[in-house]
Amino acid sequence: MSGLTLIASYPKSGNTWLRAFLASHLRGGQPIDLNVDLARIANLSARILQDRHAGLEHADLTPQEVALLRPLTSRRVAHDQPDFYKTHDCNFVPPGAREPAIPADAINRVVYIVRDPRDVAISLAHHFGWSVAASVERMADSAFRMGRSSPCLNMNVEQWVSSWSAHVESWLDAAGLRLLPLRYEDLLADPLQRFTELCRFLDLDDTRQAVSRSLEASSFSVLASQEARTGFRERHRASNAPFFRAGGAGGWRSGLAPELAERLAADQGRVMARLAYR
């Protein structure tokens, strides 16, 4: 493997489920420990990783300096530690920077997971402890960032996420990338077929037996049960629900107020139509 293999998505779109599958698959379909084995697909924006490859502490930098440094650090990680990485970064050039946080020449290939933004809004609200209305507003905000370090030092450096529509198109329309787009809803509807496509794209064992074994080890019920027993360190400190809360599709029909569904359709409608979210 040469370069970064990215598992990219807007937050709360299925990234963790896909990482859990890969963590199991890379261990021959064995059960995983959420708090140990998910580190096999680390967050590219993790502060400890960024500090190590940049050779300095990002806590000493301004947000603009972090944005300017991140492309260089991504190239160092790609050269020194090529592997699978999670990212929620938008693939456009952040304000004040000269390149995207993860430049194309550092990337081997990208798996991009997209989910109906109406379900994303509900999941974001539970994860961050926001109101659903606040989630809808942030999803339309081109300045939306994660990883800011006030009032305490964040585990990750700052990531520019942008709006839901901009994030999606920044990856789907990126020129020159080896990219596999996956809809979360399709993963749920036909997991064996879709995860087989994933394994084939990543040059992993794509036999029916191997994929089925890894799917069983990373099923939502298995992950939710483990979180209930041992907790999950990636659960946000402000969350008002388990990380593995529902895991379905179409929950917005009963869980999203009509006026908020209409606002999302107004804000994100063009890209929703492109992805057949009606």
Automatic annotation (TrEMBL):
Short name of any one Pfam family annotated for the protein: Sulfotransfer_1
Domain Sulfotransferase: 5-273
Domain of life: Bacteria
Alphabetical UniProt keywords: Transferase
Family, per entry: Belongs to the sulfotransferase 1 family.
Protein name per UniProt: LPS sulfotransferase NodH
